[in-house]
Amino acid sequence: MTGAANALDTRLGVAGFARRAARKVFPDHWSFLLGEIALYSFAVLLLSGVFLTLFFKPSMAEVVYDGSYAPLRGIEMSEAYASTLHISLEVRGGLLVRQIHHWAAIVFVAAIMAHMLRVFFTGAFRKPRELNWLLGFTLFTLALVNGFTGYSLPDDLLSGTGLRLVLGAVQSLPLVGSYAGFLLLGGEFPGTDLVPRLYILHVLVVPGLMLALVPVHAIVLPWVQKHTDHRRGLSTEKTVEGKPFYPVFMAKTAAFFLFVAGVTALLATIAQVNPIWLYGPYSPTAISAGSQPDWYLAFGDGALRLMPGWDVTVAGHTLAFGVIVPLLVVTAFMTALALYPFIERRLTGDRAVHHVLDRPRDAATRTGAGAAGIAFYGVLWAAAGNDIIAERFHLSLFATTWFFRAALFVGPVVAFAVTRRVCLGLRRRDMLLLKHGVETGIIVRRPSGGYVERTRPVPEETRIRLGALELETAREAAEDPQGIAGPR
Asked: What angle do CA 165, 168, 173 make, to 5 degrees?
């Protein structure tokens, strides 16, 4: 091993880099593990996906099923659906690996979203990390695209219904819709090229882009930049408190990878997901009752359900506002999310370099905007199940739809106002704590006869954590003696 290491160092000069890398400090706050969950789920996706590619046939050629599942014998179906049945019911361990792959995709997107929320609410996207935010958003978008393409590959009735919806949305685009539909299908619907093209996207194009971007986002940029950390202990704008990469962080992250893989395998073992043999092969003449996509794509379905089916003809062209408006709304929402670091910098004029994270209460307006975005996304997500909600709770479908339409406009406003007010109240409380100390519950009587509560100084660790507020107290004292204007 010494000879091999010396040979590599002679040719590549890796010894100095390895020494610096081994001593690089990583903060150990639990919230930083959310990004690692996404990284390890991606690794599980790649490993399980390689196994599935050995048996899956990405073809829409019609065959007659003669496999082990008796209810579907003698039925015509595509080779894609037949091979998925073969993986699920006949390949040894095939169903387990397929469910691991599906659960890993669900956990992957959930972890990315949780990681993005952590970055957003703590202000970790600020200078000099705007590029990393854009890379993370790009990875999030690619994850959604790959989730949709993988969801559509089996060519079952449920995925075919969702695919037909997306194709209808594409074809409804003015001027270019029919051309885009022909490009995707290779002809008239349903065609024979769609599944092979989705397969290439799912196993080659999108994973290749993600494999190129993940190291830049998760390794290169964090390695050359200083790690962010919460205001605690010895962590400041110039220093980081944590553990070295080797051996502490390496051991912890290896164990965490095994933990994520184990939990994913456990979910695949005990929780059934996407039982395609119950849906049957896709047929344009049939539709699954209560059909819904995976949860992370439900917001698009909800937007289509809430928009009335308005059509307008202009110069001989039909504009399907029932499809175009939801697409524009979702596109605007995603664009605003991607550009938020630059929007906040423009509105606040803050161009300083930040390595210490904010607490959500320290940036009340940003936190309120984040809560409004969550409410907006949540209403669209819930609206994707308006028919199921109406059926389960014996409600009118029209009343349920109108409730979600109203909530889409009212919910974000209420969420912003309430969240911002809560943040301001918590900041007032923190400033009072710094000014007057911690209550002890001991009441003493003054010589004048009045009663006051005895307080003790705030612990040093708490004072460090609230240090950002101390800087603002003097600036805002002119408006209010306690620093933050009251709810007048």
From this structure: 135
Contact 43, 116 (CB under 8 A): no
Sign for the pseudo-dihedral over CA of 37, 38, 39, 40: positive
Q: To the nearest whole percent, how much of the chain has pLDDT over 90?
A: 56
Instruction: Tell me the helices (H) and strands (E) count for the chain, helix number first.
Output: 20, 8
475 pLDDT above the threshold of 60: no
Tell me the C-alpha distance between 485 and 488, whole Å. 8
Could you tell me what percentage of the chain is helix, strand and coil, using 3-state DSSP and rounding each to the nearest 5?
Answer: 65, 5, 25
**What average pLDDT does the segment 249-278 reach?**
94
Question: pLDDT tens digits, residue range 18-33?
Answer: 777 778 788 888 888 8
- At residue 486, φ and ψ (nearest 5 deg) are -75, 170
Q: Specify the residue for token string 């993940």.
A: 214
Report how far apart, in Å, the C-alpha atoms of 371 and of each of 239, 249, 390 are: 31, 33, 26
> What does the pLDDT average to over 301-323?
86
Determine if the pTM surpasses 0.85: yes
What is the tens place of the pLDDT at every residue in 55-80? 999 999 999 999 999 999 999 999 99
Rounded mean pLDDT of 396-412? Answer: 96
What CA–CA distance (Å, rounded) separates 233 from 249? 19
**b/e burial code for range 446-485 (CB count within 10 A of at least 16 → b):** eeeeeeeeeeeebeeeeebbbebbeeeeeebeeeeebbbe
Inter-CA distances, 466 with 30, 231, 426, Å: 20, 8, 11
